[in-house]
Specification:
Elements lengths: L13 H18 L9 H16 L5 E4 L4 H6 L2 H19 L7 E4 L21 H13 L12
Parallel strand pairs: 1-2
């Protein structure tokens, strides 16, 4: 499902959209929130509850990480981004170690991992339907949409 509304974004070249968005994103997420220490515990509890509800209804959800558009990724403050990524992955690992939760985690942070196209983004974060379809197709090929994943928890 594509929930992002790209209206008004595509009148400028992709590199301009990426640069503009990432400048604002970095200012809000890395500069204004310099005291970031890890995943929001409320968000993790919400995710935990969501997985439990899915499990109670016979579903094993698949969580997947989307990539940044490569130019956007190059603009991120490397050390800060890597530290935040480590914290995120540690939180996912903690959830994976909770035997009361059944879910799959798929890492598509590298655009090549699903055959994505750097030009198929609306901006630095939001993929166009072409890349989204490639992700869904890869998830299907690997069994995540049929209940027979090849690399699930």
């Amino acid at each position: 499902m594509q929930l992002f509304d790209p209206c008004g974004l595509c009148d400028k070249p992709l590199n301009v959209r990426v640069d503009t968005q990432m400048r604002d994103f970095i200012r809000r997420q890395y500069v204004a929130d310099a005291g970031y220490k890890g995943m929001d515990e409320r968000g993790l509890q919400y995710l935990r509850r969501t997985i439990k509800v899915a499990n109670q209804n016979g579903d094993v959800p698949t969580l997947w990480v989307t990539p940044y558009q490569p130019r956007a990724e190059d603009l991120l403050p490397k050390a800060d981004h890597e530290a935040r990524d480590r914290r995120f992955r540690a939180a996912i690992t903690e959830l994976q170690q909770d035997n009361s939760l059944q879910f799959a985690f798929v890492d598509f942070a590298d655009i090549a991992s699903f055959g994505g196209d750097a030009g198929e983004f609306y901006d630095g974060i939001h993929m166009k339907p072409t890349n989204t379809a490639k992700v869904i197709g890869t998830l299907h090929e690997r069994g995540f949409l049929t209940g027979t994943p090849t690399a699930a928890k």
